[in-house]
Amino acid sequence: MTDAHEERRDPLLRITGLVVDYRAGRRQWTPAVRGADLHVGPGEFVSLVGESGSGKTTLVQGALGLLPESARIRAGSIAYSGVDVTGWNDRRMALVRGNYVGFIPQDPNTSLNPSKRVGRQVIEAVRFNEPGTRDAARHRDAALESLRTAGLKDAERVFHQYPHELSGGMKQRALIAIALAGKPKIIVADEPTSALDVTVQKVILDHLVRLREELGIGVLLVTHDLGVALDRSDRILVMRDGEIVEEGPVRRVLENPAGDYTRGLLDAAPARHAGRLEPASGARPVSAAAPEVLRARELTKTYRLRGRGPTREVRALDGADLVVREGTTHAIVGESGAGKSTLASILARFTVPDHGTVHLGDRELTGLSRRRLREVRRDLQFVFQNPFTSLDPRFTVGEIVAEPLRAFGLTPGRRERTARVIELLKAVALDESHLRRLPSQLSGGQRQRVAIARALALNPRILVLDEAVSALDVSVQAQILRLLVDLQAEYGLSYVFVTHDLGVVRLIADDVTVMKDGAVVETGPVEQVFRSPRHEYTRELLEAIPGTRFAVAGAR
Amino acid sequence: MLRYLALKIGRALFVVWAAFTLTFVLLFVLPADPVDLLFDPAEVNAVPPEVREQVAANYGFDRPVLLQYLARLGHALTGDFGASVQSGRPVVATILDVLPSTLVLAAGALALALLIAFVIALAATATRRAWVRNLAEALPSGAVSVPVFLSGILMLQIFSFRLGWFPAFGDRGARSLVLPLVTLAVPVSGPIAQLLVRSFAAEFRSGYVTTSWAKGATRGGIIVRDVFRNAGLPALTIAGITFGNLIAGSVVTETVFARQGVGRMMQAAINTLDVPLVQGVVVLVAAGFALINLIVDLIYPLLDPRLRATLAVG
Amino acid sequence: MTVELDAFAAGHRPGLARPLVRRLGELTRRPILVASWIVVLVVIGWAIAPGLFTSYGPYDGDTAASFVPPSAEHWFGTDRLGRDLFARSVYGAQTTLTATLLAVLIAFGVGTLVGLVAGFSGGVVDTAIMRVADVFLAIPSLLLAMVVVSVLGYSTQNIALAVGISSIASFARVMRAQVLAVVTQDYVRAAYGLGVGRLGVMLRHVVPNALSSVIALAALEIGTAVLAVASLGFLGYGAPPPQPEWGLLVAEGRDYVAVHPWASIMPGVALAIVVIATHRISTSYRKDHGR
After folding, report:
1. Does the pLDDT at position C17 exceed 60?
2. Where are the alpha helices (DSSP H) in A457-501?
3. Which of A157, B105, B300, C100 could pair covalently with C225 via S-S, beta carbons 3.0-4.6 A apart?
């Protein structure tokens, strides 16, 4: 993968000066990609990293000729092994796609046809790219072979199954099989693991690395996760606002990033930080003997799934315990289906458990009447994962933050209320200029700040944050985490911080509880759990955290 | 599985029973004197009291309402909706006489409507030209906007009176069926086409279509292999509404083209206040609706592998 | 993830936030929508002040001028009694549109309330209401309206009542579906979490957010109701003959369709154009609001 090697031969994929616009109105165009260059050589693993809106997906769609109709290529060229395919129509591109370039999509759950067996979908991929042969048996064998290459050991069975019968990881493998079926020279993967759990993510990405080693194909991985990119790539490109702002071998980028943006991204990545974030005010008086403020015991919850057809039962929570100490952050970690969100939802009394108790101080929550519960809610507030759905789209920021004040009649007059709202907005680094805006006029980070301001309005003792930073870009995520740490120091808040991201846990939490299949696997101080996990599953999770190469470089 | 079946059948039976009860309340309880409804409005005042009492006794109107209801319900359960006031023949037999004519019209119109709807949806999906798509998307709302009586009259005017291609009235032979069929099919196709255009577009944008593009499939291949089946399925969910549109449309169509049928008979029954016949038609239509929805509920899971699996578990 | 979030944002863009001037500017780029609004406004004008639009009276006949084809003098031609059909259509707007408005108000008012109660209370109340709605949906609204009119008596008001009653169920169903969708939204859970009471949550969050797509349905229903009212009028269940009503005008002309086609076609086409215009407006409203 040396530079000299690439110069001699045309790379598998070369994009030169690509400019892609989106239609914004009649004769109005908004650029999404502004002159990007990119190349991938044989056997090379290249990662394209960028936050949302950076244009990375548009760039890849352009390369595959899969741009939506509202987009157009204004300038630049796309060439596969020196063959310029810019402006080819669907019919000609169909010969390139599958055959020359394989594609692994973002969300395995929607990327397979739900009404066709997996085998048929792979066979199609084989057949499209082997025109001439009509030998059904050979197609079948090739499809099975492809499924095996994608790492599905039980290929025969998967072949006859429907997509809904497979797990997310298996679906992604089936999609890899489809991508491989045409024997492509290069594979383009667009966020192939963002919809998957970390442990599955690791397995899938490791498999991609193995494929390029065994088959000698090139891989272009698009991701928002710098850690993922750094762990496996030969070379990475960083994209921002439609431009490539950084390009180079991983080691060089890690040690000596050329741009401020890349440096910022590196700093924002959780894996870069060895310990907990310190508040801006400095001192953080947390003693090991802090009194407990919230205690959940033996929580159990079973959901009945109803729909067309018979009822099924799913045990979401199976005797979970939790203790939160005053003024600290307790993280709850787990993969999808671990029951962590159910637990958070019970703590906030959005959900009533089948068994078990929750004590807030010395008050028991689970059996409270609606009226008493309302009083308790002043002490315990909730921040949702998705700031795009947790704010009423019809309310202005001012009205949103004022809602709890109004509900409890805390501020006598209009003027006092507005003053308090502004005070709260300032606490989350917004100001009165935002008062009259609607949520749709704010960025994701700003919305989450508004949600936090609203939660703080009642001066609660505890905030339950359900994946509160997961929907945000890394750089925004870092800002919100810092804000949370500062607020905690200022108001003496306790946090219950639910997340799937162990990297974030290290940044913000004092204690951590690891959950799996509705049960607590392990609990203890973060330092201890991270350094010497007692449970095998915790170890697995820790190893799956992307960005190990980072930590090494950061330590230098 | 059995529970699911029982629930759905129970629901269908409930709808039919409730339709019977509703029409009973509307037609037999609400009017001040239901006997009035049994006579021609023009002659009602001239009827001698003895005759009124005689008629009232015949129909059981002198008994308490609840008893009347139970008696009628009991008879209805055995397929007896009483006799038509106008003809004196049993309601069920009267309906059965004209039912085939309406069924032929409705079935033909449904087939044509489905054809129109699929063609429009396919055109909207397959085309790369924006104006074709815009046109295809605008057509269905035009189809439901033109009143059936107007389109019927226009057809008559153009194809029958001007061009003389088809007979204007009556129901003899296949040629006389063409104009009513088209007249009825156009408005019925509207909602189906709207739904299909939307679901075709949604499926065409879905993730698995991107996968197919990436496999190297062509536009036509994707529409045939991937989109068609998945997008066609939702059309089943408005089968009930389609049935209603067919029935309502056939009332007007049969009137405009002077065709024999359930719709026109319903109109005549309303005009002459033939209460038992009106009730018979309404209950029949509700039963048809319930049956169609029951069938859809039962076959839908068979066509969708995800639902099939949940059914098999039970 | 980004795409998903943007979709959320787009789906909830409140229309009023955009400045009026910009919205007017956008209108000029949508000539069909503008034309639809003009049609609707003109017809509303007909209904309010018919005298401004025609110098003929709806009952003024001139037997010497029967069945005059459309001309500059008589835009829609004249009928058997020599009455100006344009004038009768203009005056007929009043009858038909009043009935339509009444029907939609009944359906919208009752249906929305019933749907709100069903969706918000859930449980037994919901099941009971929806089973009853099933029954009303099982009988085609034209048939149901015919039965209701036959009980109440033939008149335009009763047609309005009948059409309104027969459309309640579909409004109830849409409103209920919307309420159920809104109730599971995070911002509703958030409001409960902030200590807002049930009534407050319903009035402040659920109703305003659920209503937007019911309003789109109401716009669509205006067109459908015009059709239903006119169909019932055409079948002879509405106003008695001398009165001008759109469906009746078409029915009256129908007997002479072979010889004097305009007598039923002109009023019919006017009716169709109005319905198409309301559909157009409803569609663009739904598109703008991402539904």
Report:
1. no
2. 474-491
3. C100
